[in-house]
Every structure is written in structure tokens, then in C-alpha cells.
Amino acid sequence: MEKNIRTLTVLYNTEISNKEISLFRGAVLKSLGDKANVLYHNHTGEETFRYSYPLIQYKRINGKAAITCVEEGADIIAPVRDKIRTMRVD
Fold it and tell me: What is the pTM of this model?
């Protein structure tokens, strides 16, 4: 049985190194504040985690910052896509 899996990849013009991917992820989370859904970070508490395939992934594609969303991750990123476009990675 074949299943179609929905994906959405948001590719930014900003070049990042492999070392900066975690900073990129942190900048996304900071821009969302306390509104960040568990799918953005996979933490369910201070020391507990969502043990499942990450539905929002922070990546480097062809040297550029990217976010790949799978299934429900694609649904929840749409409202904040523009906000994420204006963030600053320190």
C-alpha cells in the first residue's frame, strides 16, 4: 500500500554553515516565543521529549538555511512563515 507524505520545504537566501544550523533553529524558536508548538523543538517539558520522527527539521540545503516540514509540520508552519523570514541569527 502506497502512502503519499506531504512535505513543505522553505528555502532561505541566507547562507549558513553546518555549525550554524543549531543557531538557526534557536532563532526560529526565539522568534516564536512561548507560541512554539512542540513540533518545532520536540521538547514536551523541561527534561522530557517527543520521541518520534521530527516533523519540522532545520537544515542546510546547497549552503542555504532551510526548514523541511512533514505532514502536520507543514500545517503549523504556514502562519509563521513570514515571521521566520525576518529573523536574525546571532
Answer: 0.78
Question: Of the candidates 40, 46, 90, which has an alpha carbon nearest to the alpha carbon of residue 67?
Answer: 40
Measure the CA–CA gap between 61 and 86, rounded to whole angstroms. Answer: 19
Of 84, 87, 74, the C-alpha closest to 9 is 74
Query: How many angstroms separate the Cα of 47 from the Cα of each of 29, 42, 50, 58, 66?
Result: 17, 11, 11, 21, 27
Q: Please state the domain extents for the chain.
A: 7-85
Which residue reads 528555502 in cell numbers?
Answer: 11
User: What is the secondary structure of 27-44 as a DSSP string?
Assistant: HHHHHHGGG--GGGT-BS
Q: What is the pLDDT of residues 41-72, one digit of tens each?
A: 666 666 766 667 888 899 999 999 999 999 88
